[in-house]
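Check the record.
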Amino acid sequence: MERVADYPRPPRLERSTRRVRIVLGGVTVADTTEAFRVLETFHPPSWYLPPDAFAAGVLRPAPGGSFCEWKGRARYWTLAAGGRVAERAGWSYLDPTPAFADLADHVAVYAGMMDACFVDEERVQPQPGGFYGGWITAELVGPFKGGPGTMGW
């Protein structure tokens, strides 16, 4: 079991060899055993996949961006497959801060905007609230930031 309350702040980047798979429009659009997890206090991990884990043509640049105090400036991606389009459902960092340099060009997605996301064939639950992109698996113990009343944590 992992207690997200014990995760560090500032966050930690961790390489993972667990199988990560994403389904959209009934199609497996990404599959890898070479992902990274970002672990931050009270957040379920966000999973970042290398660009070659995504099927050709799935990722389309999306407008806008945002800024993370730890990782730097993010860009957004629209994912499309099997007749489904998920606008601004993914994000990445072209030039992340030095502590997160390994994330360059890796893409994370909002689990709630996909048909399903899996870690080692366990279907994940999206982090509450829609703002954060963490993936909740059975080994995680909350509480999780993102739901009503948690923004000030």
Remarks:
- The first strand starts at residue 2 and ends at 3.
- Residues 2-139 form a domain with the Metal Binding Protein, Guanine Nucleotide Exchange Factor; Chain A fold (CATH 2.170.150.40).
